[in-house]
Amino acid sequence: MAEPLAAATTAQHGQPDIVSKRDFLKLVTISGAAIGAGAFAWPFIASMNPSRDVLALSSVEVDLTPVQAGQGITVVWRGKPIFVRHRTEAEIKEAVDTPLQAMIEPVPDADRVKPGHAQWIVVIGICTHLGCVPLGNKPTDPRGDYGGWFCPCHGSQYDTAGRVRHGPAPLNLFLPPYAFESDTKIRIG
Description:
The protein is of the alpha+beta class and about 190 residues long. The chain has two domains: about 1-45; about 55-189, 3-layer Sandwich (Rieske Iron-sulfur Protein), CATH 2.102.10. Helix content is about 25%, strand content about 25%. It has four helices and nine strands. The protein has helices at about 1-10, 20-45, 50-55, 90-95; strands at about 60-65, 70-75, 80-85, 120-125, 145-150, 155-160, 165, 180, 185-189. The strands form three sheets. Strands 1-9-8 form a three-stranded antiparallel β-sheet, with no helix packed on it. It has a three-stranded antiparallel β-sheet with strand order 2-3-4, with no helix packed on it.
């Protein structure tokens, strides 16, 4: 009875096609090593993900209710200062009426604010020259000749739309990603 089974399981070269103990042990060993390597690597790879406190800072909600026209506040998002300013009607008019030829990096005011919310300007408060933090968000800070922000390190001046108007800074203040959740609340990030 063993002969017909052996004859039925012969391979092309006349050798029996039988799985040996050695093949089984190799398969078990390789599988165990792969599972062990995965179990060892998983915590290491998972440790590269951002921690919970970093994820919590990935977006910031800002209540705009206490900010009066002409005032600005500074919030921190991802370790960077974010300037949020409630512009007055005069500041908006001056920002809109400024000719683009007068700017180092010409950008219209409408491209720097969200539609329907021209009174709010939200910029990353880092000078584009050497990374200093400009003055101008506190009422006692100098705001430069254009009423926006002034970087005392090298004299760069920004207008009320965060556009560079004077000094060595080559670019306007950058805009963070933000959205209005309501008329009195924004989410940055």
